[in-house]
Each structure stands twice: as C-alpha cells, then as structure tokens.
Write a structure and sequence with these properties.
This protein has 258 residues and is α+β, with helices and mostly antiparallel strands. It has one helix and eleven strands; from the N terminus they run αβββββββββββ.
C-alpha cells in the first residue's frame, strides 16, 4: 500500500500533514499563490457637502452681519429718541420769598354787552339821525309837517265811515357811508293819545306826493314825501315813531305831534 506523491518545497521537502488528510496540498516555491484580497474601493468624493459648505457659510455670515447692523441701528435710534425726549431739570435761580403773597390768576374778562341805543325824541320841524343795521348806514330824518285831516287824491279812495286820513311829511337825508334802500313807510308808526298805534296806508293825498314803495338814497342825497295813515275821526295824534330797515333797526326816533 503506497501514499500519493506530495508537492515539495524548493528544497525538496514536504511539510508534515495530519494523519488521514487526503486533500490537496499547497505548493511552495515557484508554484506558491498567496490568498487573494478584495480590490480596493475608489475614494468617495463629498462634492455635495463641499458645495453646501461653500454656499451656506457665506450666507450665514451675511445674515449675522445684517442682524448685528439692525440691532445697532435700533439701539442708536432708541438712544436718540430717549435723549431728545428726556426733560432737562432746571433748578430755580432764586427761592421765592416767604412774605411774598401768592400770585393770583388774572380775572377773566367778562364779555361786554353792547349798549342798547335809546329812542331819540324831537318835535315837528326837528331832525334825528338814525342808525341802521349796517354800521355805515345813517339817515337824518326830519318831520316837516302834520296834515290833519288830509284830502284823498281820488274821490273813490275815501276812508271808511268813522275814519279820516292824515299825512306826515318827512325828509330823509343819507348822511352815512352805505346806500339807503328801503320802504320808509314800513318803518313808520302813528301813535295816538291812548297809546294805540297805526301803520301806514296806501292812500294818496292832494297835499303832497306820497313817499310809498321802495326808496334808494345814495350818500349825500335826500328824499321828501308824505306818509299817509287812516285813523279814527276822534283820535288825538300824539307821536310819530320811525326806524330804518323797515322798522327792524334798533334805534327808534320819536317826534311829538301835539
């Protein structure tokens, strides 16, 4: 019984094998082959990470600089506003004297009431300068005569039964700066001895031209005419009252007729 031939090393010797081993034997010398190892992997490139760092770091730096700048700007603005709004404390240069009386507040001025213009009086033949609602309106009024009774200019314009017609002749002269434009008969009232008053009528008389309708008198000009009234036959005429602005002016003029 023989053993299979065994490979020999370069020196012609074979290494001892365990008893009963029948597998192939490694060869040495020129036939030796070392165990093979896996091929090395190529190095992994971190290109994405490099790009992210290259872009992200500058952005972070810029954001940090901007935040710092805004913080500095806000702090400087607050400081300026605080300095401008802070009150400056001033110490009094002189202490008030103990015996000095306390200062009193000035009394409030009460609005002065405009004095009301009282009525002016005159007799037949006298003149009164009346003030109108306009400060520049002034008219001198003269009562020239009283016609009692007066005759109607037309027979069909006779007064009613128990009444008579009387007329007062007046002259109006504009002595102010404003133009006088008014219906003078509207501002005339005839007052009897019992205090009853009568407004003018639309009658015309033969004794003179009636001063009826609208009248316009420039500064320095004048008008003359009759203001006609219809009164009871037994009435005793006492006064004529006249005012500018159709009787609405504050100043009234009164002429005694008897």
């Amino acid at each position: 019984m023989g053993y299979p031939s065994q490979p020999q090393d370069p020196y012609g010797q074979q290494p001892p094998q365990p008893y009963g081993y029948s597998g192939p034997q490694p060869t040495h010398g020129y036939g030796y082959q070392p165990p093979t190892s896996p091929a090395p992997q190529p190095p992994r490139r971190n290109t994405g990470l490099i790009i992210l760092l290259a872009v992200g770091i500058p952005l972070l730096l810029l954001g940090g600089c901007a935040a710092v700048g805004l913080a500095l700007f806000d702090s400087s603005k607050d400081r300026v506003v605080t300095e401008a709004d802070s009150p400056v404390a001033r110490m009094p240069s002189k202490q008030p004297e103990e015996n000095q009386p306390p200062a009193t507040e000035p009394a409030q001025q009460q609005p002065q009431e405009q004095p009301k213009q009282e009525s002016s009086t005159a007799t037949v033949g006298g003149s009164i300068t009346l003030q109108g609602s306009d400060p520049g309106l002034q008219v001198s009024v003269t009562v020239n005569q009283l016609v009692n009774p007066a005759n109607p200019a037309q027979d069909f314009m006779k007064p009613k039964t128990g009444s008579k017609i009387v007329a007062v002749q007046v002259t109006l002269a504009n002595v102010g700066r404003a133009v006088y434009s008014d219906a003078p008969t509207n501002g005339a009232l005839l007052i009897d001895g019992e205090g009853q008053q009568y407004r003018s009528s639309f009658h015309d008389v033969r004794e003179g031209q009636s001063l009826s309708g609208m009248v316009t008198i420039n500064t320095g000009d004048s008008r003359k005419g009759m203001i006609v009234f219809e009164v009871p036959e037994g009435a005793k005429l006492a006064k004529l009252q006249f005012a500018l602005n159709s009787g609405f002016a504050d100043q009234k003029g009164e002429w005694t007729l008897s």
